[in-house]
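Q: I'm writing up a methods section and want to include an example of the input and output format. Could you take the sequence below and give the corresponding predicted C-alpha cells, formatted cleanly so I can copy it straight into the document?
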Amino acid sequence: MRILHVSSECAPWAKSGGLGDVVGALPDALARSSNEVEVATVMPLYRKARQTLAKRGLELDDTGVVADVNIGPGVARVRFLRLDRGERSPVLFAANDAAFDRDGLYGYDDDALRFILFCKAVVGVAPQLLGGRPDIIHAHDWHAALVPGLVASSGRHLLPTTRTILTLHNIAYQGVCSKDLMPITGLPWELFHMDAFEWFDNINLLKGGIATSTAVTTVSPTYARELEHEPFGANLSGFLRGQAIFGILNGIDTDEWDPSADVHLDAHYDAEHLDAKREVRRALLELCEWPEEPEIPLLGVVSRMTGQKGLDLVAELASELYRMPARLVVLGTGEPGLEDAFRLAARHYGWHVRTQIDFNVALSHKLIAGCDALLVPSRFEPCGLTQMYAMRCGTVPIVHKTGGLADTVHDPGDEALARGEGTGFVFEHPTKIGLRWAIERAARMYRERPQGWRAIQRAGMQRDWSWTRSAADYLGLYRALCR
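A: Here is the clean output for your methods example:
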C-alpha cells in the first residue's frame, strides 16, 4: 500500500506547532507498523527547512521530478528533492524559491496562491514521487485541502483509484480566498457551490477539501463531536453535521520525549526513579534565578500565545499566585497583547513569574520536565500535545475539559487521584475562576499529599502516549478505503 502525506509542515524541518509534530511522527509510525506499507511525506522547501538541513549536515537528492504548474497567465516550476533517512520514511521537498524561500512559513498576502501551487504540483506528479500511483493521499489542514478536490475532479485521470483523506488539525484556519483564484486552482466551476468550495461568494479551501475527500479525520474523538457545534465548528458546524468525521487521537514521539535519555535535561529519570526529576527542577529554578523552596509548586506554560490557548486567564491570575503559593514560568510567542501581558507580569511579580518570549526547543524540554505542573487552559483544543509531553515527563497537567485534553487527562477527583487512578486536574469552565480552582486543587495536593502527587506522576508516565495505537487506527481506515 502506497501512502503519500501532504503537509505544509513536518518536524523537524519546519513547523509552527502541533501539525508539524504530527506529520513528523505519523508516517514513521505507519512504516513501522506494517511491512506492506510504503509511505512518504511531501512538504514545501522553505528557507527554514534549508537552514535546518544545513545545520544537520544533510543534503537533498534531486529526484528529477519537475512539475510545471499553470498559475494565472504564467507557469511556475516546482522541483522535487528527496531526503532518505535509513529506516525512517523519506521526506520529499517541493522547491520553488519565489513561493517558499521566505523568512516565515505563513502570514503572507499570497498564502492561498502559494499553497494552491504546492497542491497542484503534488497531484500532478504524485505517481512519480512514490514510484507508482499512491493508494492513499493523506492531506493535512487547509494548506493541502485542495488535493482532495483535484483528485476528485481534474486530476482523476492521473489517479483513478487513489483515495484521499483530509485531517483537520485546527478548523479555525480554513484558507478562505477570493473566487478570482478559482481558474488558478485547477478545479472545475462545478465545485464552486455551497456544498463544496463556495463560501459567501469566496473560496473556502478547507470546506471544499472536506466535501471532496474520501474520508475526513480529526485529531481526537471529543473534537470530532465538538465540531458539530459552535463555536468549535468555526462557522462550519452546520456543514459538518452532514459529514462522517473519524476522531483518531494523536500520539507523540516518545523517543524525543523520554526523560530517561533526553539530551536537553540536566538529569535523567523514569517512573520508578522520580527523585532525579528534582535535579531537573533545580536546574530550571537556577535559570529563573529563584531559590529552591520545595513546598511551592512550579507551574509551566509552553504554548503559542493566542486567544484559543486561554493564556489570558493565566496572565490574569499572575497577581494571585503568591497566596496559593505557586510560581510560574512561561515560554512562547504569539499575539503581541499576550506577549506584553506576560512581560508585564514578570516585571511586576518577579518573585513568582518568569517569562521568556521565544521559540526554543531545548528550553521547552527543560521547562516541561522541570516543572511540577503544566497549564493548558485552551478554550478549544483539537488534540494538544504538550499535556502528553508533560505526562510522559512526570509533570502533572492542569487542563480545560475540551477536545483532546478531555481525551487524554483523566480527573476522577482528589481522593482517586491520590490513589493513582487519574493523570491530572481538569476544570470545565474556561474562566479565571475555573482555572484558579484547578490550580488551587493542584497546589494543595502538591503541598499536603506528596505521595498522592507522586501517584499522579506515575499514572501519567505509565500511559502509552506513542503513535503505535494511532498508527494502527489510521492503517485500519486506509485498508477500509482501499477495499
